[in-house]
From TrEMBL, chains A, B:
The keyword Secreted does not apply. The lineage of its organism: Bacteria, Pseudomonadati, Bacteroidota, Flavobacteriia, Flavobacteriales. InterPro entries: RibonucZ/Hydroxyglut_hydro (IPR036866), RNase_Z/BN (IPR013471). CDD domains: RNaseZ_ZiPD-like_MBL-fold. It comes from the Bacteria. PANTHER family: ZINC PHOSPHODIESTERASE ELAC PROTEIN 1. Its EC number is 3.1.26.11. This is Ribonuclease Z. It comes from Flagellimonas taeanensis. Belongs to the RNase Z family. The keyword Cytoplasm does not apply. It catalyses: Endonucleolytic cleavage of RNA, removing extra 3' nucleotides from tRNA precursor, generating 3' termini of tRNAs. A 3'-hydroxy group is left at the tRNA terminus and a 5'-phosphoryl group is left at the trailer molecule. Zn(2+) 1 binds at H60, H62, H140, D210.
Amino acid sequence: MRLTILGCYAATPRTFTNPTSQVLEIQNHLFLIDCGEGTQVQLRKYRVKFSRIKHIFISHLHGDHFFGLPGLISTFRLLGRENELHIYGPKGIKEAITLLLKLGDSWTNFPLIFHEVESKETTLLFEDDKVGVHTIPLDHRIYTNGFLFKEKESPRTLDVEAAKHFGVDRSQYIKIKEGADGISKNGDIVPNVKLTLDPPKAKSYAYCSDTAYKESVVPLIENVDTLYHESTFLETEAHLCEKTKHSTAKQAAQIAQQAQVGCLVLGHYSTRYKSIELFKEEAQEVFSEVELADDGKVFEF
Amino acid sequence: MRLTILGCYAATPRTFTNPTSQVLEIQNHLFLIDCGEGTQVQLRKYRVKFSRIKHIFISHLHGDHFFGLPGLISTFRLLGRENELHIYGPKGIKEAITLLLKLGDSWTNFPLIFHEVESKETTLLFEDDKVGVHTIPLDHRIYTNGFLFKEKESPRTLDVEAAKHFGVDRSQYIKIKEGADGISKNGDIVPNVKLTLDPPKAKSYAYCSDTAYKESVVPLIENVDTLYHESTFLETEAHLCEKTKHSTAKQAAQIAQQAQVGCLVLGHYSTRYKSIELFKEEAQEVFSEVELADDGKVFEF
């Protein structure tokens, strides 16, 4: 599982900082999460292969998470894309993109498939045999969802050495992989758990931006390996959180701590602060495993 | 008259090249012409003061001329803008911007005034006592206008030395400035032209992007000081011009030559070519006064 931060600063693009966008590589998928203005340039800069992006998840329709999408779709068209592109986002996203394509008479020559959400409950957006993606309802000024990316448990793998040890014949291997117990040469039943190995741990990533402090996300993201949680402000500006519906670094850490996540990644920083290290310091007073997102940074989990 | 090129490459933004946008400083106005994705970052990079932009002219609704506008408007809002912002562009631009602001619940706290055009004839878009802006109907895949920026003729200025020489009394100066003839001490009439100096030449700038070769623009732009004319292709790719409705460098030069402009500035280059110098070489075979636009380049006329 590999996370590339394309942009992680709040509000407006600047010369050296970019609004929110990130790429999650998981089980051979390349999921694009949010798409602020300039995302396509960041994708080029960090050499993400455009054609591998098949699913784009948009948390909400504020410009700093969304205004790069029309241009990215146009560029896909100019590059001669033929593969389906799936867009997941709040109701309204289809109307907006469709209007812009219509005004430019720039209909895509590839299937552009919208999956609009409007539920306030967690919803399954995407699923295949390897991974599932659910919404995480957040609390922002407009309708907003985070996203939970979760690998599926792989089946237990056959322990050939153990099978030999217990005298279990090869002819049983397929059934054992499917979960059956084995039978030894002597006719004794050998429990499946003794003939198989634990699968690699299924990994998970939760993305929560933008949101005010919202404890009800905790049960949805419990024990995820990595939580990206916005921290627009420090506690010194906590009074701004209520009006703007953002969080402080401390609040992000409180969510991480309650959900017992493996690692907290902070981002969506207001540019009013001298150094983003201040966010880490504040969060670590509550939760020790803190990383700072930054444009171009890559996390391998 | 000062022209800052923010971006001048065709199609998609790239790591080191930007789609079309430019700023024209004329008679204390700062006119923004087109607004491809990333324009607000280019404005910051070249230190153009956001608050001085009061009029934005959009030639057509293809993404590489327009997709930076929603983000720029949002940024104006975040910066606390209070002044009116006037947007001139094809019919549909108001619906698109309004929908994006509505979806983001991001209404501006400054007056946002749209001036939509749909005429195929040249139209006056803006006028004050110093400058006028007209559309230049172009020939592109969708409805597109270039823009003609023209300073107004200043009144002739009083030649005090001449007035003294002819013995014309000070009491007549105001009327002479308004165009009246003078009367000398001896009672002789002194023609106005002998008592006044030519005003500084009124300057003009024509912007023509995107367009196929279109001779009917020639009478509209005759004798302008500077013509920006797109040259997406070289003659080796002239066969692409008909389908895409773009011009070659040679065609741009032919327009410049017929219109007897002072200087031709080329831009909107396809990125397929090794060097933009090739565009200049091709154009100069037809017309000698050729300059190459490039991102960040400033022209003083």
